[in-house]
Amino acid sequence: MVQTPQAAKKETDSSLHITIDERELSPEDTVDAPPGLEEQVKATIDELKEVNLSTAEHPCPTYVITLLTLAEEVEYTALLTEFRDVAVLAAPTQGKPLIFYVAAQVQLVGVLLAHENEEGKEN
After folding, report:
1. SS3 assignment for 11-53
2. Strand ranges inside the chain, DSSP E
3. How many CA atoms within 13 Å lie on the side-chain side of 28?
4. What gap in Å lies between CA 115 and CA 96, rounded to an integer?
């Protein structure tokens, strides 16, 4: 079977509709959670491992998730080390215009709010 680009697109596009019902629920409308669900509550915080992004003389400790493979940890730590001195967060300067970036794809929307600092670089 040969699909046209339009037919293939129809299979991958989707829409999600959420209806919020703000009615008050009466006790008759609710039920207790099953005991098995209550007993199996587990922490969702992943374990972290400390890594140093600098030297022993000038440590720059940060934490990475322990679920990474050794190869992933090495690659991720190298990336963090490369960008450790890059200022990624800065308070906006009052009176300076803000720049709003939007990147949209079929299943993802990303936004960034920035402004230019005194050196003409975006923060």
Report:
1. HHCCCCCCCCCCCCCCHHHCCCCCHHHHHCCCCCCCCEEEEEC
2. 48-52, 61-65, 99-104, 109-114
3. 0
4. 7
Q: Is 92 helix (H, G, I), strand (E, B) or coil?
A: coil
SS3 11: helix
Say what the pLDDT of residue 70 is. Answer: 93
Backbone angles phi, psi at 39, to 5 degrees: -75, -25
The three-state secondary structure class of 68 is: coil
Q: Is the dihedral of CA 60, 65, 69, 72 positive or negative?
A: negative
Dump pLDDT digits (tens) for 15-57: 556 666 667 777 777 777 777 666 666 656 778 899 998 888 9
Task: Provide the whole-model pTM.
Answer: 0.39
Distance CA 24, CA 22 (A): 6
The whole-angstrom separation of Cα 100 and Cα 85 is 24
Pairing of strands 61-65, 48-52: antiparallel
To which residue do tokens 């929307």 refer?
109
Beta-sheet pairing, 99-104 with 48-52: unpaired
Tokens of 78: 């190298």
